[in-house]
Amino acid sequence: MFKNLLSTSLVCFIFFNCSMAKKTDENNVSNLLALLVAANTNPGCSISNTEAIKSNLTQVESKPRTKYTISACDEAGFNSLGLSQSEVTKGATGTSGTSVLYTNNDVMLATNKGGTSIEVSFTMNSASSSLDVIGYGSGSPLSGPTYRLIAGAQTQYKNTSNVFGNTGKGGSVSAPIPAVGTNYTYCLDFQYTMGGSRFLNGFNKPCSEVSDAERGSMAYYPIMQMMNVPVYTGGNRLGFVLNGVTVTSFTIGSIVSNTEM
Fold first, then answer.
1. Nearest CA to 210 among 196, 221, 200, 225?
2. Close Cβ partners of 191 (under 8 Å, ≥ 6 residues apart)
3. Is the pLDDT of residue 212 over 60?
4. Structure pTM?
5. How far apart are the C-alpha atoms of 95 and 87, rounded to whole Å?
6. Phi/psi class of residue 32: alpha, beta or left (left: φ > 0; alpha: ψ in -120 to 50)?
């Protein structure tokens, strides 16, 4: 009996290790599910699932999105959600270009599934405020393709030379300009097409409020960058630089854009 039990345990152990060795996009999902279970029960510092946004692009999977609510997180709360921070106070509020918040695990979705959408709710606290949203990031400090949302100015992006420049927009819309003291929710795509192109497409509204017409035509993208976008192969972490900014939540899901070239 002991011999049979030992054999069964050995088989299970080998199977478990072989399964764990397979590094796929499912590992990222497992990490997030584990955090859902372990997260702080404080509703102002928690992780939850939210409704998927169905895509018309065949490679994009319509899975539930993962929402991080961080409006009441302290350092212990951030840790419980798998987040690290430096110079970020409860709220979550940063005061300078060295105020950073980032995921400890890989949370960005596989590029062969179209990339990742980040929905972020934020407030600019002064006329010099800016918020960097860094996707497919790696290193310390975190570096990767970046949106820079700026108080009183057009959204910028970090190009392949690591220099920030203005994004473009569709011809039928205006570029969104965040005002100080107002709460905004932006839906920002880090898109990767089947042809290997990298696009930064954003909307100044929650992802669920972007209409099919807006999603389906580049003319309606208020934030759009289709050239000189850095590669998405550096890593799969997500980070923020909160320079005079308060972020209350962010949500990770499949891209909202329904166009590609």
1. 221
2. 114, 115, 198, 199, 200, 201, 255, 257, 260
3. yes
4. 0.85
5. 8
6. alpha
What's the confidence (pLDDT) of residue 29?
54
Nearest to 164 by CA among 93, 87, 251, 243: 243
Burial code (b: 16+ CB inside 10 Å, e: under 16) for 241-261 equals bbbbbbbbbbbbbbbbbbbbe
Q: Which residue has the tokens 């709220």?
A: 91
**pLDDT of residue 5 exceeding 60:** no
Q: Select from 114, 86, 80 the least CA-distant residue to 241.
A: 86
User: For the chain, how many residues are written?
Assistant: 261
Q: Coil, strand or helix: which one is 41?
A: coil
pLDDT digits (tens, 9 = 90+) for 68-78: 999 999 999 99
Contact status, residue 219 vs residue 151, Cβ threshold 8 Å:
no
